[in-house]
């Protein structure tokens, strides 16, 4: 490793990894808030969670909280989750359904599903007080491949501009996206930096090396066909399903599997992942939300177009939650501990010229996006 060459100028094949401080330094974490997350697109939920009047989902990011709600005319709007009277939070639950009205629990100020003030007790007695002049500030909202996203920066590039081709890629792979329904959502707090967790998810180098669940995942796919591609602000890692497997997740398959089935993953900068596991018949979301320099909230959303759920779907979700997920989390925790060691600062990316199924080129690509954002490099 040649430390005399600036990190960003090192060729990936011989590059050293990001210095350890990028994964625990308080100042870097505070800078990430401003330069990566508060101007980045954040997943809210699927269209099926926001298609009926009164449905809403609350998204929290650091100190910010945003309500996304379905109005009477079917439009979906997002606005800051804060009463414009004295700053009280309007909603504390993650999602719900009301009659199109958000009522502050402090002084009963009432807001419509687009954040406009509908009523305020005693306001008729106030001088120069017009309900129409007051609203919870709007937050930018976009729909992409059947999911809603928000961005706290009104000047941020549109998703189509940031992620050209991502919509087509995911719709081609999973054409049933519009018919999905939320099955369940799981949240886990992990004592590790969000980038440690992302790094673990975007390389296949550890599949056959790190634990029994990863070996089992490798058994379900044609690992020789595993491909990892970077597309600037979005990336994919995809492998064909091994269709000869007849007992995935401990379930005996009675039907012939879909010949187009894949282990499919797509990531959207900075922290959104969408994936489908082999044979699972579910589509899932995975969001890494930093809650501190060395702590992250992991949110897993499971969706399916099947009703009732196939046995293999419930079995694969259980395997994710109780087997593979905990194995990954343990790796995240031990890496975070190691990054604090006085005996380590930088390592070496395992990147080969062919960008093979075991190459860590996506990790390097992701770190490059982080570095450029923090150092304001175009």
Outline:
With 378 residues, this protein is an alpha+beta fold.
Word description of this protein:
This protein has 378 residues and is an alpha+beta fold. It is built from 7 helices and 17 strands. The longest helix has 29 residues, at 311-339. The radius of gyration is 22 Å and the shape is globular.
Report the average pLDDT across residues: 96
What are the low-pLDDT stretches, counting only 5+ consecutive residues below 50? none
Report the span from N to C terminus.
25 Å
Q: Tell me the helix content.
A: 10-25%
- Architecture (CATH level 2) name of the largest domain: Alpha-Beta Complex
Q: Could you say which structural class the secondary elements and strand pairing correspond to? A: alpha+beta
- Please report the total strand number as a whole number: 17
CATH class label of the largest domain: Alpha Beta
Which terms would index this structure?
alpha+beta; 2 domains; Rieske Iron-sulfur Protein; seven-stranded antiparallel sheet; 7 helices; 22% helix; single chain; 378 residues
Write the layout of secondary structure elements.
Elements: H1 26-37, E1 42-46, E2 55-61, E3 64-70, E4 76-80, E5 95-97, E6 101-103, E7 110-112, E8 117-119, E9 138-144, E10 147-151, H2 159-162, H3 166-173, E11 181-190, H4 194-201, H5 212-220, E12 227-231, E13 234-240, E14 262-268, E15 272-276, E16 283-292, E17 295-304, H6 311-339, H7 361-374
Antiparallel strand pairs: 1-10, 2-3, 2-5, 3-4, 4-9, 6-7, 7-8, 9-10, 11-17, 12-13, 13-14, 14-15, 15-16, 16-17
Helix pairs in contact: 4-7
């Amino acid at each position: 490793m040649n430390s005399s060459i600036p990190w960003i100028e090192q060729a990936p094949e011989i590059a050293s990894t990001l210095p350890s401080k990028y994964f625990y330094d308080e100042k870097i974490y505070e800078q990430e808030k401003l330069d990566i997350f508060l101007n980045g697109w954040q997943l809210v939920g699927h269209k099926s969670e926001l298609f009926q009047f009164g449905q809403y989902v609350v998204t929290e990011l650091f100190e910010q909280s945003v309500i996304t709600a379905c109005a009477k005319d079917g439009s979906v709007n997002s606005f800051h989750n804060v009463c414009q009277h004295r700053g009280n939070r309007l909603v504390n639950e993650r999602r719900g359904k009301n009659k199109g009205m958000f009522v502050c629990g402090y002084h009963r100020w009432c807001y419509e599903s687009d954040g406009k003030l509908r009523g305020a007790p005693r306001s008729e007695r106030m001088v120069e007080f017009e309900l129409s002049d007051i609203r919870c500030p709007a937050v930018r909202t976009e729909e992409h491949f059947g999911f809603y996203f928000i961005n706290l920066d009104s000047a941020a590039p549109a998703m189509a501009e940031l992620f050209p081709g991502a919509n087509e890629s995911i719709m081609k792979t999973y054409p049933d996206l519009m018919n999905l329904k939320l099955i369940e959502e799981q949240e886990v707090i992990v004592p590790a930096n969000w980038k440690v967790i992302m790094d673990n998810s975007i390389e296949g180098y550890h599949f056959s090396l790190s634990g029994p669940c990863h070996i089992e995942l490798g058994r379900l796919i044609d690992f020789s066909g595993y491909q990892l591609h970077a597309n600037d602000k979005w990336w994919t890692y995809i492998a064909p399903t091994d269709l000869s497997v007849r007992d995935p997740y401990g379930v005996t398959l009675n039907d012939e599997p879909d010949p187009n089935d894949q282990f499919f993953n797509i990531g959207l900068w900075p922290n959104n992942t969408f994936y489908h596991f082999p044979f699972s018949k579910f589509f899932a979301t995975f969001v890494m939300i930093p809650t501190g320099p060395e702590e992250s909230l992991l949110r897993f959303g499971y969706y399916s177009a099947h009703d009732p759920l196939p046995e293999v779907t419930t079995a694969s979700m259980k395997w994710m939650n109780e087997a593979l997920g905990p194995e990954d989390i343990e790796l995240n925790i031990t890496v975070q501990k190691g990054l604090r060691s006085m005996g380590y600062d930088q390592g070496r990316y395992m990147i080969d010229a062919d960008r093979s199924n075991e190459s860590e080129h996506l990790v390097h690509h992701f770190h490059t996006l982080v570095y450029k954002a923090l150092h304001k490099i175009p």
